[in-house]
Amino acid sequence: METTRGALAQDGLSGPLAAHGGHAAVDAEKVFARIAKRLIPFLFLCYVLNYIDRVNISFAHLQFRADIGLTEASYGLGVGVFYIGYVLFEVPSNLLLRRIGPRRTIARIMVLWGLVSVSMMFVRNPTQFYIARIALGIAEAGFFPGIVYYLTSWFPDRHRAKVLSAFVLGIAVAGITGGPVSGWILSHADGWHTLRAWQWLFLLEGVPPVLVGLCALWYLPDSASTATWLSADEKALVARELESHGHANDRRIGHFGAALRDWRVYACAFGYFTITWAGSVLNFWAPSVIRQAGVANPWHIGLVSAVPYFVGAIGMVLVGRHSDATNERRLHFAGCALIAAAGAVLLGTAHASFVPAIAGLALVAIGYLTCTAIFWTIPATFLSGTASAGSIALISSIGQLGSLSAPTAIGALTAATHDISAGSYLAAAVLAFGAVTIAVSMRRLER
């Protein structure tokens, strides 16, 4: 947590911006630094737990596929069906957030997904596996877009890439910490109280979200206007900053119905669709790739799996800072999507060799993490109000169809060829297409 706070301070959230000189600008930066230090560490922890519970299946399946009769194709399908419930319930969840507030929404989602994750320990066959994954998707629906919307309601444009990068850093930390922890559980917990190690994995990693979700009920304010730790002057300042720097563009769409008719929403949705292919390669096949590269022990696989996330985190912070400094989004996104595509190609050509395999995963991690952080600054440039809440969820929902199709396609190709190469090349092509789409379609949004 202190590392996250320090990174935020170093990125400039605690200092004045020359473009907004004067005493008021200095005060504004101090207020936003204080808000960041209050909100980001907690939301960061929430997202770390979220990602660990979503992707720990990549480690569990190294052991439980033999216990419940899973093939590579059925594993890929099980990974993908998570997104059926996720997609169907994401927009309703974000629209409900506007009614009941972020505090109750985040708490509800975390408690439900933690309980469903724990229930995965009782799965005994592929059908139960599919049902549990769909239920987990329903429980998690709306979490990521809800927090993206929540953060955009606190911070003006000039801070968003840094703030979202600090939040998305949770993916990297989940990979850095979750892999070794999951590998250790698989290596040491088998037979404890007659349970298999993969059952302990789901139990031990499912309980923390329930506890943190309950804490969210009293820790998180719904908005700056309800934050007891901000003075009246500070609340007014936040409102003014959001109005003048975040929502004052008359060209922004303020109603969800109008957003549904705007082609830019769907261009963004396709761009996000392509990012999820990189996430699928990194989050669900990295342990298998590392094992194919010659690492057999689950504990060692977990340790090695942390390396790509660590490299990706560094790349994301650096590129996010540059994107904010230049106020340029689309080309940063496109460039990082092409980096992920290059990593996928490298995996396809040399995945069985240790150094190229790790290098390929690191490139995929840099592209995936950075694109995820930068991407959500793009819709905010033409959406506001209800349109922002609903459209962020809609974009995420459509985009997550990639998380449904990618594991299914990669799993089927891997099962048919006994090799991840074909799936990697397909992912690279999709990512390259997404890079071109955003680079071309979002040119009109440049200031």
Automatic annotation (TrEMBL):
Gene Ontology cellular-component terms listed: membrane
Pfam families: MFS_1
Membrane topology: Multi-pass membrane protein
Keywords for the protein's UniProt record, in alphabetical order: Membrane, Transmembrane, Transmembrane helix, Transport
Superkingdom to which the source organism belongs: Bacteria
Principal location listed in the UniProt entry: membrane
GO molecular function, one term: transmembrane transporter activity
Protein's cellular compartments: Membrane
Membrane-spanning ranges: 39-61, 73-93, 105-123, 129-151, 163-186, 198-220, 265-286, 298-319, 331-351, 357-378, 390-416, 422-442
Classification via Gene3D superfamilies: MFS general substrate transporter like domains
All copies of domain Major facilitator superfamily (MFS) profile, residue ranges: 39-446
Record's protein name: MFS transporter, ACS family, phthalate transporter
Organism: Paraburkholderia caballeronis
